[in-house]
Amino acid sequence: MNKLSNLTKGIIKENPVLVLLLGTCPALAVSTQASNAIGMGIATTFVLLGSNAAISLFRNIIPDKVRIPCYIVFISGFVTLVQMILEAYAYSLHQSLGIYLPLITVNCIIFARAEVYANKNTVVNSAIDALGMGAGFTLALFTIASVREIIGGGTWFGTELPVLIDNNISIFAMAPGGFVVFGCLIAAVNKILKSKGKNPKKEFGCANCPSASACKKGGC
After folding, report:
1. pLDDT per residue as tens digits for the range 114-172
2. Nearest to 146 by CA among 108, 106, 186, 173
3. Number of domains present in the structure of the chain
4. Alpha-helical regions (H) of the chain
5. DSSP 3-state assignment of 159?
6. Residue 99 lies in a domain
7. Considering the domain boundaries, does residue 220 fall inside one?
8. What are the pLDDT digits (tens) for 100-114?
């Protein structure tokens, strides 16, 4: 895979939220406003970029038996750095994201890219993969949040929209509306991929399972 394909695969073809269905909890929880969605997307991309690069750099010296704890140390370090930066320079966003900001530490997207990609590729390719996946995550959150904010609240980035502000459908700002928008976007992406003759390629399976060597593959 060339570098351009590696960068763009996370936008649609392997979008972590809409195709791989990872990170759905923050995707639905913080996607009530477009500004929050972009903030969470950028924060996650930063952590993903830093952790991918660090794990790729040290992959040859990290003992296999303790690689998961090592991943957690790297990831939590970058998450702490993001928290400190946001608390210092974007306190309102820090407050809006709340508990979901430190929970980036256990985001499935970051662990998946660390185990499936960064642990097996160079620093440059791992960084490119992180940027692509981060962009796809941010785009998915931004799209979900924009639809929910515009229809559910009649605003966009906090700006009141004529007509819609007085005729909003408030359920879209609630959890049920989030699931509806999420499901519709998944269906739209699947339709796009199907029309192009491309099936979503998921990099998960026995070959990439960390327990594959000890497993007899029974009941997988």
Report:
1. 888 888 889 999 999 999 999 999 999 999 999 999 999 898 988 888 888 888 888 99
2. 173
3. 1
4. 3-8, 24-29, 34-58, 67-89, 91-97, 108-116, 123-153, 175-195
5. strand
6. yes
7. no
8. 999 898 888 998 898
